Amino acid sequence: MTMVDNNDIKGRPHRKKPLWPWLLLLILTLAAIYSWNRATELFDDFERNMPAAIIDLFNDILRDHGREKPYGPGVDVVVPTRI
Question: pLDDT at position 14, please?
């Protein structure tokens, strides 16, 4: 009869790899997928229920975001000073 040796070369028993990191990764992945789908549903709902002018405003803001503006924000602000 042959005996199975569960020890490695140095005489220590083999340790099973923990399962909890994989379970945590699975839970975080599922939470991320759920969050993405829920956010997409909310944005679609906002888009359906908002007036077209507000949607156009958001699109203009997002479109202008990548463009470099020479003078800062698009709204001119005048600060009165005492002379």
Answer: 77
